[in-house]
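so i finally got all the pieces together for this one. its two components total, 671 residues if u count the protein bits. some of the lines might not be protein, just check the labels. i wanna see the whole assembly predicted at once instead of chain by chain like last time, that was a mess tbh
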Amino acid sequence: MAAATDGPTPCHRSVMGEPTTDGRFGEFGGRFVPETLVAACEELEAAFREAWADPAFVAEFETMLRDYGGRPSPLTECRNLSSQLGVRLLVKREDLNHTGSHKINNVIGQALLAQRMGKTRLVAETGAGQHGVATATAAALLGMECKVYMGAVDVDRQALNVFRMRLLGSEVESVQSGSRTLKDAVNEALRDWVATVENTHYCLGSVMGPHPYPWMVRTFHHILGDEAAAQCKDLTGGDPDMVVACVGGGSNAAGIFSGFADGDARLVGVEPAGGAAVGRGVPGVVHGMTSYLMQDEVGQVMEAESISAGLDYPGVGPEHAYLAAIGRAEYPSVTDDEVVEAFTLMSRAEGIIPALECAHALAWIVRAAPEIQGQTVLMNLSGRGDKDVDQMMDVLGMHGLSE
Amino acid sequence: MSEASPADRAGTFGALETHLRARRDSGAKLLVPYVTGGYQGWQRAVEAAAAAGADAIEIGVPFSDPVMDGPVIQQASTAALADGATPASVLEEARELDTGVPHAVMTYYNLCHHQGHERFASALLDAGVCAAILPDLPYVEAGPWLEAAAETGLEAILLAAPTTPEHRLADLCGASRGFVYAVGLLGVTGERTALARTATQIAARCLAVTDRPVLTGVGIGSPSQAVEACEVSDGVIIGSAVVRTLMSDGPEAVGELVASYRTALDHG
């Protein structure tokens, strides 16, 4: 751990480098899965290392992200919000990717890897439905069978994405156990994988879970951080003053942070107030990893509560716990009310309807604006808000708007 | 084979393993029912199971995210949690039990991690529990827990799965205490209509590398399946069948169910 905090040395190692051989980022991470899955995680790690070292695999991945996924995504300077807030706001437009979010990067990577490993079936968990839709999309493209687990609460509030997944040919199972949200969908996907590990790959949607997932998923999202770093340099001549992204499990934040972690930019991961795993700072072990985890006084995992289904997760990826512990990144939280305001603000000021997830990032920027006047702020706009408009009609009480 | 603990070298085992070895060496097939602690009537179910011929009892401490459990045990865990069950309340009730057979706790690692390994192990021992099973803590991550349990005197039971590679199996069986829990199939807890072929394979692989008792669990749904599993293993763990009976027919019916397994195992 000391090596990472001592800053650049002659044999410089990236702050967001490879985890230890036992899958640790500092004290976080690991492989806390039932014995049945240990061998599958080891097999996956070996396959990923081998594939990622193969230029042909990387070329296929990058080509597919370009020709099918629509990469690179643009960097947009938000002039209206910039003048309103007194900062220079740049947004990385992951909302413009195929399927509407950054999730496609990871899913293409994992689906190609699964095929390479001879797996014929994908299972996935989803919260807001973005990862589920992305997985269903990759499965359709590559001719794989796919089953997506989604908490019953989320099935209700994200009906459009449920239909999208079914339209794409995937089975969607509404999970009725526990709090019936994302954490329970993860449990159910793990239970499926325990039973089907021989022909099935668990296409995990965030930088969480057992080793190698946190590292592998982040690696598939490096492309967005690398693009953003190059685009910022072209536009402003260097790194921004700060990089801001929302954090549930933390995949979009990990992707964009990875482009800047070895520089001087301040890294800010914004959690929902009702799902502030890092903010509460209690280590725990669930879903295959040691990380910060919202739990009660005896260690039962608590239900996260957020207006955004995609951030409704009581844990956080272990690398974020590490970045917080060493002080490289900070993890403030915002309330649902602030998020709703930011959602409306971005829609009206820039003509961009953001996903509720990334509205968290903007909400923090709005709150912090008085203290960061004149700074260049890069925000990851990780997904588009179309999936949220139905829910927001209820929240905003604008059913009569069109009349 | 694998490294032997000081206790192993001295030929002294914990209370659970001593009991199970003696029963096995007398020719009996071992029967270990699982009951979800904190579920209404669970203490009477445990006592009925013991009276009906169980060799040890596995007590579930309900956890919010039971990733290795199928629908039946999930339902019981959720109901127990809703009734206010906590690790402390279940252990308090476990302390009151007088069954004459050893008790093991089955729960998930975060409850142990949260309390601290030593304190967790001590709390179990204080409640008269002599062993623990943590199904989401695999052997590769279990080092610190195994050390703490050994120091405290609690028997830490490890699970071996059909997918456990040969190079790890002997070490795993060597490091387990109490018995080796052979996971009978690829899947979570719950009864199946037929015994999986993997059940006999994994038990046989374990028995080839250890003289510790090997019990097969996960997926055993009838006395005849238990008999079949015992053709290659030292005994069986029955969980979902017991919990289903407790939930539908109450604690006394659990005694009848366990008796039917006992009879089948004793008379083949």
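Chain A touches chain B through 37 residues (CB under 8 Å).
The radius of gyration of chain A is 20 Å.
anyway lmk what u think
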